[in-house]
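Please fill in the sequence for the structure shown.

STRUCTURE ENCODING:
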């Protein structure tokens, strides 16, 4: 199946990684397909166990495969590609991938924000926010741990609404006449730990992506969101147009 060239300058373990990725991306190897065992790959391609193990470990860290103790290695679910050029809607993204989007609320409450959130949202002393913490799922797989702060003066009563059966931005539009059209996002890598790792069913220290989103309504900040995204499941994309200059 795989093409390994021992005359190439490319290290053998990198060739094996490339070959597995190629077959996964082409859907020749599909979700939950079982890969040949490490010993079978060693025999078939005359590779050392060290080389094969290096390749399998790298593929597991990148989210291409998962291992079951005593059973072997299997192909993981396809990566989730999200275009972050505009307002990304988790619900729509999951539906487009044939997945069932579900949100499980851990916490929702009207409260005074801490100093960090107050500064991020340009709020005055005594202003209130609605703090919403939830887990976003696709096909019962936890994908995103998200904490959302809304300026309560703009969404009074939202804490009493059902926020899990309708898209959040649709609720803002239908119930409060708010259509989010302007915002900004900040992305940076992170190691996932604590309760976030537990809720996302990850080991502490696994890599993820932090996303900070600020959404405006007029000249006020409507929303400030902190998301922890599973790094093994998501690939973010952006689009651009215009002339390139050096």
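FILLED IN BY: designer on duty
SEQUENCE:
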């Amino acid at each position: 199946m795989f093409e390994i060239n021992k005359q190439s300058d490319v290290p053998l373990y990198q060739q094996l990684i490339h070959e597995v990725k190629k077959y996964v991306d082409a859907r020749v190897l599909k979700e939950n397909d079982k890969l040949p065992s490490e010993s079978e790959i060693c025999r078939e391609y005359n590779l050392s166990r060290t080389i094969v193990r290096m390749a399998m470990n790298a593929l597991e860290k990148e989210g291409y495969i998962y291992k079951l103790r005593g059973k072997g290695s299997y192909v993981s679910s396809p990566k989730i590609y999200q275009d972050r050029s505009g307002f990304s809607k988790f619900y729509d993204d999951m539906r487009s991938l044939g997945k069932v989007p579900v949100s499980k609320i851990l916490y929702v409450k009207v409260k005074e924000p801490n100093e960090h959130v107050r500064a991020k949202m340009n709020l005055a002393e005594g202003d209130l926010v609605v703090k919403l913490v939830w887990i976003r799922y696709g096909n019962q797989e936890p994908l995103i741990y998200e904490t959302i702060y809304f300026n309560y003066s703009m969404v009074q009563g939202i804490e009493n609404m059902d926020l899990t059966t309708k898209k959040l931005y649709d609720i803002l539009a239908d119930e409060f006449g708010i259509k989010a059209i302007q915002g900004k996002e900040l992305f940076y890598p992170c190691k996932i730990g604590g309760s976030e790792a537990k809720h996302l069913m990850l080991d502490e220290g696994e890599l993820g992506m932090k996303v900070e989103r600020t959404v405006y309504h007029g000249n006020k900040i409507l929303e400030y969101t902190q998301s922890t995204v599973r790094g093994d499941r998501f690939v973010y994309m952006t689009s651009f147009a215009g002339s390139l200059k050096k």
